[in-house]
Each structure stands twice: as structure tokens, then as C-alpha cells.
TrEMBL record:
<dbReference type="GO" id="GO:0004798">
    <property type="term" value="F:dTMP kinase activity"/>
</dbReference>
<dbReference type="GO" id="GO:0005524">
    <property type="term" value="F:ATP binding"/>
</dbReference>
<dbReference type="InterPro" id="IPR027417">
    <property type="entry name" value="P-loop_NTPase"/>
</dbReference>
<dbReference type="GO" id="GO:0006233">
    <property type="term" value="P:dTDP biosynthetic process"/>
</dbReference>
<dbReference type="GO" id="GO:0006227">
    <property type="term" value="P:dUDP biosynthetic process"/>
</dbReference>
<protein>
    <recommendedName>
        <fullName>Thymidylate kinase</fullName>
        <ecNumber>2.7.4.9</ecNumber>
    </recommendedName>
</protein>
<keyword id="KW-0067">ATP-binding</keyword>
<comment type="function">
    <text>Phosphorylation of dTMP to form dTDP in both de novo and salvage pathways of dTTP synthesis.</text>
</comment>
<dbReference type="InterPro" id="IPR018094">
    <property type="entry name" value="Thymidylate_kinase"/>
</dbReference>
<dbReference type="InterPro" id="IPR039430">
    <property type="entry name" value="Thymidylate_kin-like_dom"/>
</dbReference>
<feature type="domain" description="Thymidylate kinase-like">
    <location>
        <begin position="8"/>
        <end position="197"/>
    </location>
</feature>
<dbReference type="InterPro" id="IPR018095">
    <property type="entry name" value="Thymidylate_kin_CS"/>
</dbReference>
<dbReference type="GO" id="GO:0005829">
    <property type="term" value="C:cytosol"/>
</dbReference>
<keyword id="KW-0547">Nucleotide-binding</keyword>
<comment type="similarity">
    <text>Belongs to the thymidylate kinase family.</text>
</comment>
<keyword id="KW-0418">Kinase</keyword>
<keyword id="KW-0545">Nucleotide biosynthesis</keyword>
Length: 207
């Protein structure tokens, strides 16, 4: 059996972590072998790169350095974790993937989607999600949620204009890839959102 690759995208504070945990339980109840991972991260090397990228002290990091570090972390993650798990027939649920780089670095940092796509095509070697859930919530609301519970990282500290560009970028991607990227109203209750996600899973993926 070929594995299933599901990713979650959206602004910080959109509830991705909560919904990933609920979806993991949903699949486990059905008897599936589940791998939950995240980006940047997922391997020892990738987690070390994550720490560099998100460290608030690294304010001098150039935007191309940032983009290449994300791609480097992803290359290790795909080669070491994601591709082997897919070959083993596992269900992979990943918090962020290439779409995050397209919007945060391609649009937010204004490096261009094509540049980001080129470096990530090398990193992923053609590995793409089967389905991506885009948690749709205004950046202002999402950041307010995050700051109330988590310590902010280097990207969280960007001006609201940056976060607005990122969110608009997500909406563009949703229009570009409607078969893969499914928008989810992240303002709904946790239970309602989980119900929407599992209904879409049942419709789109034959379990």
C-alpha cells in the first residue's frame, strides 16, 4: 500500500496543532500506522536548522539565507523521514511543508514563488502532499491567539504587513491548487473544524 501524505498550513495561531492531534487519533482508531511530524524539523539535523531559523537573536539573517535554510531542513526531512514512511504505507501528517516557504519567503519576503519553487523542487525530489488543509483565520486573530499561549519566534515578530502578505499568499495558492488545498474555517469550534476535516478526508481519500 502506498502511503498518504497530509499537510496543514495557515497562519500561526490558526489551530493547526490541535487539529493534527485530533486527526492522529482519528486515523489510529481506524487502525492506520501514523507518523506526525513538522517543518522546519522532523529530524535531528532539521531541528537544529529550525533553531537557527527561528531564533530571535538572528535578526541579521538575509532573506535568501532563510529560504535556503528552510529548503535544507526540508531536504533532510524528506530523504530521512517522509519518503521512507510513504514507501512503508504510513499516513503522514505534517505541520507545514513547501506551501509555507512559497508564502512566507516567496511572497512575505518577496523573493518570488518561482525562486522558492525551484530550490524546493530539489529538496523534495517530487514529493507532494495528497491533501493540504489550509486553516483560514485573519493574521491579527491568529497572532493574538499565539501570543497568549506561546513564546513568539523570529518570524512572529515581523510587522503585520508581512503577515498580511503571507495570508494573501495562502489564498492565492488555494486558488492555484484547488484539488489539493482545502480551505478550513479556523474560527469555528474545535469540534466543528475536526468534523469538517474528517468529512473531507472520507470524501477525498479512500480509507
Amino acid at each position: 500500500m502506498e502511503g498518504i501524505f497530509i499537510t496543514f498550513e495557515g497562519p500561526d495561531g490558526s489551530g493547526k496543532t490541535t487539529q493534527i492531534k485530533l486527526l492522529e487519533k482519528y486515523f489510529k482508531k481506524k487502525g492506520y500506522d501514523i507518523l506526525v511530524t513538522r517543518e522546519p524539523g522532523g529530524t535531528d539535523i532539521s531541528e537544529q536548522i529550525r533553531n537557527i531559523i527561528l531564533d530571535k537573536k538572528n535578526i541579521e539573517m538575509h532573506k535568501i539565507t532563510e529560504a535556503l535554510l528552510y529548503a535544507a531542513s526540508r531536504a533532510q526531512h524528506v530523504a530521512q523521514i517522509i519518503k521512507p514512511a510513504l514507501l512503508e504505507g504510513k499516513v503522514i501528517i505534517c505541520d507545514r511543508f513547501v506551501d509555507s516557504s512559497l508564502v512566507y519567503q516567496g511572497i512575505g519576503r518577496e523573493l518570488g514563488i518561482e525562486f522558492i519553487k525551484r530550490i524546493n523542487d530539489m529538496a523534495t525530489e517530487g514529493t507532494e502532499p495528497d491533501i493540504t488543509f489550509l486553516m483560514k483565520i485573519s493574521p491579527q486573530f491568529g497572532l493574538k491567539r499565539k501570543f497568549s499561549t506561546d513564546e513568539c519566534n523570529r518570524l512572529d515578530m515581523e510587522k503585520i504587513e508581512f503577515h498580511n502578505r503571507v495570508y494573501e499568499g495562502y489564498l492565492r495558492l488555494e486558488d492555484l491548487y484547488p484539488e489539493r488545498i482545502i480551505g478550513i474555517d479556523a474560527v469555528k469550534s474545535i469540534e466543528e473544524i475536526h468534523g469538517d476535516i474528517t468529512r473531507i478526508i472520507d470524501e477525498k481519500i479512500k480509507l
